[in-house]
Amino acid sequence: MNKTLIALAFGLATLPAFSATTLRATVNGMVCAFCAQGIEKRIAKMDATKAVFVDLKNKTVAIEAKEGKALDQKAIAAEIADAGYDVVKMEPTTQSVAEIKAQLKAKK
Fold it and tell me: Per residue of the chain (108 residues), what is the pLDDT tens digit?
């Protein structure tokens, strides 16, 4: 039984890395406000999406999940690719979309 508890505790300790509620993607091909708006609308329609922010200058798309929902990285990447853009990188983050937006706006 001790081995089971240790394995369970170890599994739970690593869980936050996989349960991030925000994804940050680097997307190539966005060149105008119309591009950003198109991606934003497509991602916002997805069931688990609470908030979306697209920053053209930094080629960043940030997606935050609704409470109790999980973001599907493959589905999001497919949605962006279907819109005609290339997802170069996608990573979970502990920042909210609002925090990412504020951070990127401060860079300008």
Answer: 444 434 344 444 444 434 468 999 999 999 999 999 999 999 999 999 999 999 999 999 999 999 999 999 999 999 999 999 999 999 999 999 999 999 988 886
Torsion 51-79-47-22 (CA) sign: negative
Domain limits, the chain:
20-107
**Hunting for tokens 């983050």 — which residue is that?**
93
pTM: 0.79
Strand order in the sheet with 86-93: 49-55, 60-65, 22-28, 86-93
Name which of 52, 71, 55 is nearest 63 in CA terms: 52
92 closest CA partner among 16, 14, 20: 20
In CATH, what number does 20-107 get?
3.30.70.100
